[in-house]
Write a structure and sequence with these properties.
Number of helices: 4
Structural class: mainly alpha
Distance between the termini: 25 Å
Helix content: 40-55%
Oligomer: single chain
């Protein structure tokens, strides 16, 4: 699900929640790295959409994703 869909539904009465499995935080990754890797790999979001969702620059998201993929 992309950020455009989340933003589009923001003003409507129906809220579109993003479900995150808590088990992603049981690794050597930082919580931020785990979240970014989860959004990119499992939810299929791109760096730009993740950056908008988390209020970060997409270049920072790329760096965090790269660092997170190197860790187990």
């Amino acid at each position: 699900m992309g950020i455009k869909k989340l933003i589009k539904n923001r003003d409507s009465k129906k809220t579109n929640w993003l479900k995150i499995d808590c088990s992603i935080f049981n690794s050597e990754k930082s919580p931020f790295e785990a979240l970014v890797v989860f959004l990119k790999d499992k939810k299929g979001m791109n760096y730009h959409d993740i950056g908008l969702l988390l209020n970060r620059d997409e270049r920072n998201i790329w760096t965090v994703y790269s660092r997170g993929k190197k860790k187990k």
